[in-house]
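Write out a record, fold above all:
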Amino acid sequence: DDAPPQDANNNRRGGLQQYYDSARSMTSAPAAPPNQHRRASLIVPDGDTSVNCEKNNCPNNLSVEFGAINRGTAYREIRRGRKKSILSRRGWNNYDPHSEWMLRTFSGRSRDSSATEATGLLQIQKSTSIDYEIPEEGSGSPREALIEMFTENKINCLFVFIPFAYWSHAAHWSDGSIFILNFLAMVPLASMLGVFTEELAAHTNDVIGGLINATFGNAVELVVAIQALLAEDYRVVQASLIGSVFSNLLLVLGMCFLMGGIKYPEQEFIAQGAVASISLLGFSGVALLLPEFFGNDEQGATQDDTAIVSRIGALLLIIMYGLLLWFQLKSHVHLFQGDDDCVALIPFSWALTGLVVITAIVTVLSEFLVASIDGFCEEFKLGRSFVGVILLPVVGNAVEHISAVSVAMKNKMDLALGVALGSSVQIALFVLPVTVIVGWFTGKEMTMRFPLFEVSLYLMSVFIVAICLSNARSNWLEGSLFVSMYALVAVGIYFEKDAIKPHQ
């Protein structure tokens, strides 16, 4: 009551101003800060959660997830969970592939023996140092771990088809039998190729491990494509590569959303990585359009012009993929760091040997597979495009598809997106342009001029997936949409005429 009238009026005007400001803020609120869509796993002492991760100033105990752009990180997390399951089931609490028992297993000598030899003691002392101690309980051995790696996945029972696959070619069986047997034999080989790749990466640092995963992550697709390229079957090359993207982008992602949505009403994921992946796929779609619109016969362009446009586009895609690796492994590595408790189950030399051997077997069987495609199509009345787009992607992606769906059903949608979208990006930005470059250096007329309706389906698929991923949430309805879209693509490809050539 003692307050001056002027002050009372000011107070009333101030209260009204605050009310109007509050009302305006509800209708025109600014966008969320750029870091709000990131999730951080914090382990901060004394309950202090005020951690700033701007400009790469992240503490060592802070792991920030970028999302679904990195296939290698997603697959590494899945393999880490399986390794922990193996160690827990076998009771190998003290497992170490570099321990004394491990060294004895694959080298036949102990550290005591090496030390005795270095000091030049008597030969009898050397021989007595070879008496090894019994391994400590709960340690396990690399041989047992290797057996676990081969038996952990039931699909590896298809290894029994490998000798039949080779014999079918050597004995000149029908092309249909050769195709089916080699198809079945390559499925577990692709699975173990990914396992040995991850084991090899586990012995290196993040940069080298990331490069290994980037190189061998889709090695089966690359080997099959190069074999078809060397056989000058360009339609199979193009169909298998664009089919792998369709498979990952629509079928795998759709099954992840569908199966995860059946178990959970709604699942959340990080939008930033998903949007980046879709943007990269859209960029690759533009590169596929260039030879069609600017290198076609109606424009007066020759086959050489189409090849030049394709090779420039391929180089730009590879450069973009290199920039992506730099983003993941160097400039923004803190966004992709996971847990640091990754344990290798086998020694480095074993992992390297397994990777080389399985790659060699895949190379041989893929040659048999590609050579039998024409006869298989004639025997089963199927188009070569249908075989390339729908059937061949199963060879390299079957086990990854199962892994992605399984983690989605555990409400780990970021890992599922990392496998599905990450594989799509790797094929579109690395495997596809590499085949064009290999064709360039080997004198093959491999171009990026895909059939226009396949490119249209590709861009429409990217557009539909981008819309569904924009809200950073998923449900079973979106999953059924993706699967139905894949079914439509399969129906269209089934009736595609094989007379269409890459340059027509």
